[in-house]
């Protein structure tokens, strides 16, 4: 999973020399902040836990992109610490979604499938666009890798939301919505663990790997 120290350093040097990385992060930040607002309103209106979970994921990603912008060009150790912080955001999101799904299971009505499908498709288009922009940086240091993993997981989650909308439409039950919310939490959990391990490996590498990017 984790790349070698040389690969991480080389990826960081590329990011520093390429102003495109910073521009992409700004685009990703704006897109994710906007989609958080859209999905939170739509999720509340449609009574969809999956949309609400995805909205919070967009908010967490917007914060992650802001952190990534703040550490561009800093030493590898600082970028690894930023990735460590972002992994905790991802794990916290997973815990919230699991808890929300359990509470919704106790007393929940079926959400509106039309709203779920339409907003899920919009979110998918936004995340696929960001993921394509970030693809070339997927093998960089832990900070860069965390940005790619977040975007990749979001696109997968959006497809799941659209499938949940079809499930709700076909069954009239909230189960598909709750199941997808659980899947999204699992994605955040596995992604957070990956980023956590990579960041800890870079921090463990010590001063030899912590060269300015």
TrEMBL record:
<feature type="transmembrane region" description="Helical">
    <location>
        <begin position="155"/>
        <end position="172"/>
    </location>
</feature>
<dbReference type="InterPro" id="IPR050681">
    <property type="entry name" value="CDF/SLC30A"/>
</dbReference>
<feature type="transmembrane region" description="Helical">
    <location>
        <begin position="24"/>
        <end position="42"/>
    </location>
</feature>
<keyword id="KW-0864">Zinc transport</keyword>
<feature type="transmembrane region" description="Helical">
    <location>
        <begin position="178"/>
        <end position="196"/>
    </location>
</feature>
<feature type="transmembrane region" description="Helical">
    <location>
        <begin position="62"/>
        <end position="80"/>
    </location>
</feature>
<dbReference type="Pfam" id="PF01545">
    <property type="entry name" value="Cation_efflux"/>
</dbReference>
<keyword id="KW-1133">Transmembrane helix</keyword>
<feature type="domain" description="Cation efflux protein transmembrane">
    <location>
        <begin position="25"/>
        <end position="203"/>
    </location>
</feature>
<keyword id="KW-0812">Transmembrane</keyword>
<keyword id="KW-0406">Ion transport</keyword>
<protein>
    <submittedName>
        <fullName>Cation transporter</fullName>
    </submittedName>
</protein>
<feature type="transmembrane region" description="Helical">
    <location>
        <begin position="114"/>
        <end position="135"/>
    </location>
</feature>
<keyword id="KW-0813">Transport</keyword>
<dbReference type="InterPro" id="IPR058533">
    <property type="entry name" value="Cation_efflux_TM"/>
</dbReference>
<feature type="transmembrane region" description="Helical">
    <location>
        <begin position="87"/>
        <end position="108"/>
    </location>
</feature>
<keyword id="KW-0862">Zinc</keyword>
<keyword id="KW-0472">Membrane</keyword>
<dbReference type="InterPro" id="IPR027469">
    <property type="entry name" value="Cation_efflux_TMD_sf"/>
</dbReference>
């Amino acid at each position: 999973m984790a790349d070698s120290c040389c690969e991480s350093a080389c990826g960081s040097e590329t990011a520093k020399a390429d102003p495109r990385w910073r521009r992409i992060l700004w685009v990703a930040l704006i897109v994710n902040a906007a989609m958080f607002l859209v999905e939170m309103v739509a999720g509340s209106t449609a009574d969809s836990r999956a949309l609400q979970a995805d909205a919070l994921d967009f908010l967490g990603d917007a914060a992650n992109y802001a952190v990534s912008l703040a550490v561009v060009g800093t030493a590898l150790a600082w970028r690894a610490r930023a990735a460590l912080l972002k992994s905790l955001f991802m794990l916290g999101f997973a815990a919230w979604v699991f808890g929300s799904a359990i509470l919704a299971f106790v007393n929940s009505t079926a959400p509106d499938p039309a709203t779920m499908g339409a907003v899920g498709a919009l979110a998918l288009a936004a995340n696929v666009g960001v993921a394509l922009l970030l693809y070339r940086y997927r093998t960089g240091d832990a900070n860069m890798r965390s940005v790619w993993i977040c975007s990749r997981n979001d696109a997968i989650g959006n497809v799941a939301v659209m499938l949940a909308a079809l499930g709700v439409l076909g069954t009239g039950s909230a189960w598909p919505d709750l199941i997808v919310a659980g899947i999204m939490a699992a994605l955040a959990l596995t992604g957070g663990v990956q980023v956590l391990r990579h960041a800890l490996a870079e921090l463990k590498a010590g001063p030899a790997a912590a060269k300015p990017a």
